[in-house]
Amino acid sequence: MERVNIRQATKISYISVLTGLIYTYLAAFMLKDYTMTIFLHSLCVYLPLQFVIVFLIEKFLSSKVSFYIIILFLINYWFFIYRLEFIEQIACWSTFSEEEILWYSLDDSFLPIVISIIIFSFIYHKKIKKAIKYLLILNILFFLIMILFGNLHVYRYNQKLLEHKSSKTTEIDK
């Protein structure tokens, strides 16, 4: 059984974390979470744990089997993250049943998971030498886009709030 050296396992783990960040941006967009709480949770809790698990899978299993196990792990793990964030940000304010939470989470997280898995699979198989550099650039671009969307969302919210306040004052003045 062939095993991967520590350097290769670390590289694959970094690639999975950077791909996980891309997933986080996409999931935040799907949740309309422009405050980026899912990003902070991922950065501090979920992604370090993902790094360790992917490292262990890549290090101790054969390279032929490890790719498929990592893919299955990432799909389940990212869905789990999305489901938790959905419950925390949306379902806790409403009366969703467990079945509805499951279906909404599956529906909304499908596209971010597929895109992230395609990116991860492409980089894993191509063994691109500068993959981490390209993923960092892609993450910076996604982060800037999310900041832009967040600022636009806050601006629109403030405009609506001002319009609402001004309409109330005009009603009181009448």
Q: Could you explain how this protein is built, in words?
A:
It is built from five helices and no strands. With 174 residues, it is an all-alpha fold. The chain has one domain. Helix 1 packs antiparallel against helix 2, helix 1 runs parallel beside helix 3 and helix 3 runs antiparallel to helix 4. It is globular.
Tags for this model:
174 residues, globular, mainly alpha
How is the topology of this model organized?
Blueprint: H1 6-31, H2 37-60, H3 63-89, H4 98-126, H5 131-173
Brief description of this entry?
This protein is mainly α and 174 residues long. Helix content is 86%, strand content 0%.
Give the N-to-C terminal Cα separation: 83 Å
Average pLDDT for all residues: 77
Helix tally equals 5
Could you say which overall geometry the principal axes of the C-alpha atoms support?
A: globular
